[in-house]
Amino acid sequence: MTGLSTHVLDATSGAPAVGVEVSLQDASGTELSSGQTDSDGRIGEINPEPLVPGIYHLVFDTGNWFSDNDIKAFYPEIDICFEVDDADRHYHVPVLLSPFAYSTYRGS
């Protein structure tokens, strides 16, 4: 399996963050693809094609999501910069989200 997926969880409610807009960009900021988290807070294939080795950004539109859910928050956008080093593997970038903090890691 190759490509890229993500998962956003709302740490405050303990529930999936449904409807977060996510954009995949290359190192120059050009959008390559985009999507919206589903009812489980996931985008299973934001980029189903293999990513060539290089630097990428996943940009999460958290400002609109927080606003749509009537949550006062500090981070209007999360930009996770990561490096692909193997085009033959699948990359998964999860986000644990709260109004005043977030965390991420290289998932599997």
Describe this protein's structure:
This protein has 108 residues and is mostly beta strands. It has one domain: Transthyretin/hydroxyisourate hydrolase domain (Immunoglobulin-like). 6% of the residues lie in helices and 51% in strands. The strands form two sheets. Strands 1, 2, 5, 8 and 9 form a five-stranded mixed sheet that branches. Strands 4-3-6-7 form a four-stranded antiparallel sheet, with no helix packed on it. Strand 1 (3-10) and strand 2 (15-16) form a beta hairpin. The longest helix has 7 residues, at 62-68. It is globular, with a radius of gyration of 13 Å. The N and C termini lie close together (11 Å). Residues 25-38 have a biased composition (Polar residues).
- Number of separate helices: 1
Largest sheet: 5 strands, mixed
**Per the principal axes of the C-alpha atoms, what is the gross shape?**
globular
Helix share bin: under 10%
Percent strand equals over 45%
Assigned CATH superfamily: Transthyretin/hydroxyisourate hydrolase domain
What is the highest CATH level, the class? Answer: Mainly Beta
Distance between the termini: 11 Å
For the record, the CATH architecture stands as Sandwich
Domains, number: 1
Mean pLDDT: 94
